[in-house]
Specification:
Elements (H helix, E strand, L loop, with lengths): L4 E7 L2 E9 L39 E4 L5 E4 L1 H5 L8 E8 L9 E9 L5 H13 L2 E8 L2 E10 L2 E7 L21 H13 L12 H16 L17 H17 L1 H18 L2 H25 L1
Parallel strand pairs: 1-5
Antiparallel strand pairs: 1-2, 2-6, 3-4, 5-7, 6-9, 7-8, 8-9
Amino acid sequence: MRSIWKGSIAFGLVNVPVKVYTATEDHDIKFHQVHGVDGGRIRYERICTVDGQPVQYSEIDKAYESPDGDRVILTDEDFSKLPAAEKHEIPVLQFVPSEQIDPILYEKSYYLEPDSTTPKAYVLLAKTLEEVDRVALVHFTLRQKTRLGALRVRDGVLVLQTLLWPDEVRAVAFDKLEGVSKPKPQELKMAETLVDTLSDDFDPGLYVDEYQIELKKLLDEAIASGSSKVTRAPEAAAPEMDAEVVDLVAALQRSLEASGRGGAKKAAPAAKAAKATKATPAAKAEAKPAKKAAKKAPAKQTRKGA
């Protein structure tokens, strides 16, 4: 996992440095759109509705339209003046019973890792939350957005779950539920009996996403069969030697030549050839008389001197 944010939990006067990691991931198989005729990839451009020309992302500003239709265009400079700058602190506002938080408010989960050499304060906070059986209501800023969160413990690790603001949950009232008669006691009893027959402890491992499993199986079989629906990936080209590596090798070779070792290696074949020539029979025959003559000459000179 890769950390997406760093900060610290302010637990009274205790400071708990942490790293934030996304706790969940999407296992759905991703697709992209292609042209059904030739398989070409479909791409989208940002087109201006006024001049009909493509617009670079750097040239795009943000516009707000009021309920009355008034439009306000804001630039990056306008947003930079706002006080909602990235704050790297997670202050604990209060500790509340977990059952008092409506599950509809829970949004996304993050793991918190201790970011200090001595994670004693981290362990203290986690253990305290387990003992009091409450969650810590916190306030923090992530990606330029102010958020409310619930801090709890899972398997000894602090988990931060973002919460929706109360006004982000829609109020609901269905007309069809108005004026409906209450269930009869006998109906309630039979329904409760049915619930009892299906009651058990929750085990998430018993449930799998069958659609994704069958979809992956379909794709694997198509690739294995080599059907007309499959376009084989081009073979990867052999990696070229880095230019820096080539220059280094050349520099090392020149260094050897300058020190004489490089030339010695080149002269080695010539030395071997000369040695082979001396070893031939003709060469041996010519070498023997010369050797004897060289031995006799000093003897004659000795006799004359006597």
